[in-house]
Amino acid sequence: MSTSPFGTRRTRRWIPWLSILVPSVGWLTFGLYPSLATVYYSLTEYSGVPGTPMNYCGLCNYRNLFTSNYSQVSDAVVATLKYTAGVTVLQIGVGLGLALLLQRRRFGYGLYRALIFMPQIFSVTIVGVLFSLLLDPSSGPAEQILHSLTGGSSAFLGDASVSIWLIVLVNVWMFSGYTMLVYIAGLRRIPLELYEAASLDGCGPIRRFTKITWPMLAPATTVNVFLTAIGSLGEYALILVMTQGQYKTQTIGMFMFNSAFGVNPDLGLGSTLAMVQFVFTAAIGGVLLWRLRRREVAL
Amino acid sequence: MADRNRTIRPSRVLAATAAAALAATGLTACGGGSGSSSSSTTLVVAEWTNAAAVQETQAIDAAFEKANPGVKIKLETAPTTAGAWPALQSSLEASKGVDVLAQFAQSPEKYAPAGSGVTVGGTPALISSGQLLDLSKQSFMSRFDSTTQKFAMGYKDGIYGVTMAEYVNNSGMFYKKDLLAKYGLSVPTTFDEFISDLKTLKSKGLTPLYVAGKDGIQNIVWMGIYNQLMMQDKPASEATSVFMAKDNAFLNGTQNWNSALYQDAANRYEQIMQYIEPNAGGVSFASAPGTWSAKTDDYPFFVDGSFDGNTIAADNPALNFGMMAIPGTDNAAWNRADLAPDLAWTVPTWSKHQDLALKYLDFFTQQTNYEAWVKATGSLSTQTAVPTPTLKWTDWLQTNASKGFPGTTLPWLPANVGTGNPAGGPTLTETKPFGSKDLLAALDDSAKAYTAAVKK
């Protein structure tokens, strides 16, 4: 009988099956089962309080989205789109700008990159509470700064016209470092010969950026746009801490959280909103990915 | 179902931070489990964060452990802000990992009749599905006022929790005595007097009214006024029948959010709101008591529940302040405090240590422990032998709280009416002065939404 670190020939046969079985059980338990349960809960009237009845009601929750809850759903869709567009555009812009500034291997640049990346590792809750305090119109410094600069004042997070944009800015502050790092990786893969040739042809910095840097960063842009947009479409944690969805900041994710886990939870409605969010994210994410990949090929 | 008459309990920033982190990351699912070993038994107790209440509970827990060698108490807490408390409660219920669970006290009105087609949620769902122990036969219940206990946690013939605390919630307002005295004003007793005081204070360059508008505390004014208008001079004992009649009227379509009473309340609310801090929409519930107490030369009035009284006193011990009910009507006798039965201890039927949990409640409610607890929390006493504590800010309450009435809840709504649905009443963060919508127009929207929500 042959010997090996993996046992006998007979036991070795089971190793691949075991390798598949363990992650499969994990996926079935923690991935597929909760997903299927969410689909089922969305077809029920169920408060989520253990021991209370769960009544199958077909598409009743979906119907309610377009009738009694229509105004909340439409407001949530608008808030989600604003939030996603704002975060994606700003984070890509800021991340790219920072990458262009800090891509060089010079003394001290590593420290700046680390400092800019640092908010990413902070807890969303800590960041949310911190900015809520900064933006408190009675006791926070933001009000004093605004007043000294413009003479005006603002309720900040309590003003529906600016509240969602303030949360967008906080999100961008937190996560631009990540976008920057992806872009820096992309920038370092661009052959220097391309820039040398362009310089010889008389290209200035703007043309070098538009004709070389931006097109060559297409794969990094795909990754950044896709990840940022998908993350923003499901966002609720930062909003939960900063406004709890008040003042026109209730995104679909926030609406789902409030419905499923709020003061009087309704897991049926919450699960229905989770399904809506899934479809919404899959549709927008799919279109984005398709467009970005086509752009990469075209370039 | 939205529950807007339940104003969020106090929480400090750090506590909110910690527990909201749990809620945001879903880690609350790992909440406490009750375990026992041969040498010790662990009793899991859970309550929402109210710094004073938690501190006093810990002191009583320590005394209980000392009196019962081998017993350990694990106290789980989470603030009511950012959905942390509901998340902790859900996880404890799902894991059956709690022995003594705090609940917000209810009212008989919470149980919609079977024919209404409205299903109950939250605590009433736990009670009506038989998951909380009937405490009515427990000896410690005799220490309490039976009417309050029955009103707050009664269902059919049982009482499913022992209601420890009662606060002036809706209609609650603090005032700075020295500022009123400085401008020659007395505590207003009617709506006209109140508006006149606000006008006078504004003319002196003050911002008369402070409110944590970011967290919707303006609801205290709105609901306080319409409750006073609804109750008028009726005795507190009629509150249940008055509110049940209101609920039935909503369901039958003879009353709605745009009925005359609510329009009257809306007009009064709007008049008062003309005098608030202009940026109150951004003021958070967590920071408001501290800010108000620190600013001794402005904000003479502060809309908030009496549960924050001791917090304010601790934030600025030198502040000379009092607590009163907002005078929302033209008749001084109608302007009573809207009382909210609050923390009620319950024992789940699936608790692994039911006998010990009952022993704990017996210990907790002993007179000396309860006296210390109400003093620390600033709560009105619900025990017959324990008077409401005399604190520096409770003079108005000492005289007037007994004239108050237990507050209303919202009309019956189907459970799947989502958060922010106007069927549960106007969202005041969207109406003037916090938003752009006119409150009377919002009442019309709410009336339409309610009709749509209950339409069979």
UniProtKB/TrEMBL annotation, chain A:
It is a multi-pass membrane protein. CDD domains: TM_PBP2. Its main location: membrane. The chain crosses the membrane at residues 14-33, 83-102, 114-135, 162-185, 217-247, 267-290. The keyword Metal-binding does not apply. Residues 77-288 form the ABC transmembrane type-1 domain. It comes from the Bacteria. The keyword Transport applies. It is found in: Cell membrane. InterPro entries: ABC_transporter_permease, MetI-like, MetI-like_sf. Keywords: Cell membrane, Membrane, Transmembrane, Transmembrane helix, Transport. Belongs to the binding-protein-dependent transport system permease family. This is Carbohydrate ABC transporter permease. It comes from Streptacidiphilus cavernicola.
From TrEMBL, chain B:
InterPro entries: Bact_solute-bd_prot1, SBP. Keywords: Signal. Pfam families: SBP_bac_1. Residues 1-29 form the signal peptide. This is ABC transporter substrate-binding protein. Coiled coil: none annotated.
